[in-house]
Amino acid sequence: VQLQASGGGLVQAGGSLRLSCAASGQTFSSYDMTWFRQAPGKERERVATITWSASTYYTDSVKGRFTISRDFAKNTVYLQMNSLKPEDTAVYYCASRYAGYSEYAYWGQGTLVTVSS
Q: Shortest CA distance to 20 belongs to which of 106, 75, 78?
């Protein structure tokens, strides 16, 4: 199983980015997909999850600004990030876990998002 994250970059505060995570080697529809982030000197944080049944979760700091979605035909999960803030600067990772399991079995390599003020 491989997860390939992409879409990071440098953006000014207030701008937008869309992250993508392409999955291969797994039955995509049976997995919950999550975006995590880790800022320098901070612990990893769960940002957003979309379950196999399309339920979503967002951490409070991104509610109303970020949207997680998935395209089953492309085996890809997206994170649309709008109204970006400098505090959103982090390495963003996608991860997957089999539906009903608590552990994330597979992780992508991370993509850096830098938001300048």
A: 78
